[in-house]
Design a protein that fits this description.
Four Helix Bundle (Hemerythrin (Met), subunit A); mainly alpha
Length: 211
């Protein structure tokens, strides 16, 4: 099933069911894509405006980057579902004999590695999206500044949500060196880009508090 091709209603209905996929990873990727789309909308609304003639080339470049990130995040919805299936099957593998145990451990290790790699990719895309929102906030049309705030809030939420999908899988890893490496990458992104997203959101919110 191509989850990115479902309607909004269909996607959330399956998400709310007992089906194994989509789950938190796919949901975070979709939320990140929505956040990036809001940033892209600010760019679209800025293009062609005489008031912003000086930044048209910048906006075009930002829009191009935003479109790529948005498409990548949509694609990662499906990838997250694809990598989880082998892991869900691995948990049910027999382990009664030494050979069975060894094979289960091998399959689990490979599956867990993939199940960490995808949410880490989602996180990286969300970090890139947050950086673009800073640019859209400074160069985009003022009439859509609230959408920058909405977009960056979505991207921060997606970043945090994806990190939990990293941490739940690293917790099960037998290779603790790889687990800690993945945890470090995730925490670094969280620390830097959660703060940046908060700063962008606060700057946008402050506009509406002025009298």
């Amino acid at each position: 099933m191509k989850f990115s091709k479902l309607s909004c209603e269909e996607f959330v209905e399956i998400l709310a069911s007992k089906e194994a996929v989509p789950g938190g990873g796919g949901a975070s990727s979709l939320v990140g894509a929505i956040g990036m789309a809001l940033g892209g909308m600010v760019g679209s609304l800025t293009l062609g405006k005489k008031k912003y003639a000086a930044v048209q080339e910048d906006i075009l470049a930002l829009k191009a980057k935003a479109d790529v990130i948005q498409a990548d995040l949509i694609a990662l919805i499906q990838r997250d579902a694809e990598v989880f299936e082998p892991l869900s099957k691995a948990y049910g593998m027999p382990s009664g004999t030494e050979n069975e145990k060894t094979e289960k451990e091998r399959v689990m290790a490979a599956a867990l590695k993939e199940c960490c790699a995808i949410p880490l990719q989602i996180m990286k895309k969300c970090c890139d999206a947050i950086e673009l929102h800073k640019e859209f906030a400074s160069k985009g049309t003022a009439i859509a500044i609230s959408d920058v705030g909405c977009g960056v809030a979505c991207c921060k939420a997606a970043l945090q949500a994806a990190s939990l999908n990293v941490f739940i899988n690293t917790k099960s890893m037998a290779d603790r060196e790889l687990a800690e490496e993945n945890n470090k990458l995730a925490n670094e992104m969280l620390n830097v880009y959660s703060r940046l997203a908060d700063e962008i959101y606060a700057d946008v919110a402050a506009i509406f508090q002025r009298r």
